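Need a sequence for this fold. Nothing fancy.
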């Protein structure tokens, strides 16, 4: 995962997540929720892979629960400046 902050997100970043064969991607945007333009994760949507935006605390809790259930979940975290 290359982008360090929200402004650096590109469509290619989300497309690379397909290498992990996720059924769900959790995007953590720091303490503030920021929603990327849907065109950035279009490829994921086309493959019916969910994208959920959340703060870091919620992401960590959700990731742990889903992973413990054996779900194919990927956490992608950027800072929100």
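Here you go.
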């Amino acid at each position: 995962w290359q982008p360090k902050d929200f402004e650096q997100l590109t469509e290619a970043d989300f497309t690379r997540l397909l290498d992990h064969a996720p059924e769900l991607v959790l995007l953590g945007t720091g303490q503030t929720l920021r929603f990327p333009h849907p065109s950035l994760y279009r490829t994921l949507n086309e493959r019916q892979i969910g994208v959920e935006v959340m703060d870091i605390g919620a992401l960590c809790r959700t990731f742990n629960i889903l992973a413990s259930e054996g779900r194919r979940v990927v956490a992608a975290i950027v800072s929100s400046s």
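For context: The CA atoms of residues 6 and 80 lie 6 Å apart.
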